[in-house]
Amino acid sequence: MQNESVVLRVENVVKHLGGQRILDEVSLTVKKGRLKVLIGPSGAGKSTLLQCINFLLPPDEGKVFLDGREINGKSKKDLLWLRQRVGMIFQDFNLFDHLTAMENVRVALIKVKKMDKRTATHRAMEELARVGLADKPGLYPAQLSGGQKQRVSVARALAMDPAVMLLDEPTSALDPELIGEVLAVIRDLADAGMTMIMATHQIGFSSSLADEFLFMEKGRIIERGAPSELLARGSCSRTMAFCAKLSELSGEMGG
Amino acid sequence: MWTGAFGAVACLTPFTEKPRPCDAAPGKHMDGMLKALTASWEALPYILGGIWWTLGLIIGAMAVGLAFGVPLAVGQVYGRRPVRRLVSLYVWLFRGVPILVQLYLFYFGILAYLSRIPALSFLHLDSAFAAAVLVLGLTSAAYQSQIFRGAIQSLPEGQLKAARALGMTDATAITAIILPQALRLSIPAWSNEYSILLKDSALAFVIGVLEIMSRTRSVAATTHQPLPLSILAGLIFFALTWAGLKALKTLEGKVRMEGYSHQGSL
Hints:
Chain A has about 260 residues and is of the alpha/beta class. Chain A is about 40% helix and about 25% strand. In chain A, a hairpin with a 2-residue loop joins β4 (about 60-65) and β5 (about 70).
């Protein structure tokens, strides 16, 4: 485990929004092929942390390293370099409404990677097939179910060959019966060795895949550890209490 | 150049102006009223010939309005503070000064001066047509910019975020993601701008553009029949409005985002 390479490192990131300290010196390191899971109550800063990593929200303080290179938030070149290598999945998908599923996956290949149209189309179809949507390339976002939209957005991120993927509560906006298909895609990614950081409330699902749980509250990571270890600490643990409440509400929780 | 192009178009049409053969209507006993009505009727092709000038004015003005309106809107939404200020100033200026006043200011002032610059001579800025297209277009740009601004701001914030997250520059995100959606959403409001421009274009007669209204007036001055001629001019403008709005409605349907419903009709 020591000799695996570090893909992403975040050091003491601080972020204020609306006069409030949303992130309070958060640090984390992700090694290649690992999945880190951010859990914690809403408003804890999970989403802000993910958006600070690719500078959609520039951090006020702290450092972000990708593949050992420190990102200078003032340099446009650095930001574009970083963002091309960091895939992001949003809670509400954010597919481009005027483009079909295939065009959504293809647009950045053409506009950012400057691929020619044929190669880009071919690549987009491959990625759609990977998320099980090879039969729906011509449908517009408004014609897709929530689960299908989220899978298109995963394909869109994968097409860019990201070094790491950030998933911001990818199933929170989905109907319960659609969550499964998105989780299956995420499981495939994890099995294929994709490096990921995911904010989620799907404790049961992610505890089988995650290499570490990071429990956030009030802008800080207050507990961290392997899922089994963290969940085994007993009910005095803040994480355990939170998970117990989640499972109480949803009526399901398991390893 | 402007004048030449549209003059040529006018000559090719069946509505070409002919000498008005008032004297050809004979009859010693024909009463003056009937004679005047006949003269008005015979002037019809001449008045209809104004349609081409009117269409030239509004197509030109909508193009100028679009070309200036889109960057103004983008500047107002995404620009830094001085840019936003400048856009606001522009919008206030052109919304605040009557088109009639602007026509005089541009035709006799700004453009008369600019047309003396040799490098700009090919634009024929001293022509009344160019002045009218510019005034109508720049004014329309002020209004159009507010249509586009509203459409841009109505898009979910996530669209820009997702584009940035994919590594797009802001310029690419705006041209490839934001504007294609915003412009589609703008078409219904933009259609309204067409009918406003069509009617404002009638003001161009004051600087001598030979559009429908100026031809109607000149015929009325010789036949002394302002009422039937005004009804005729009104009908022509109405028909142009109707046809243009139908065409824009068709365009709206053609470029509509699938499944993204916008109900409503004219």
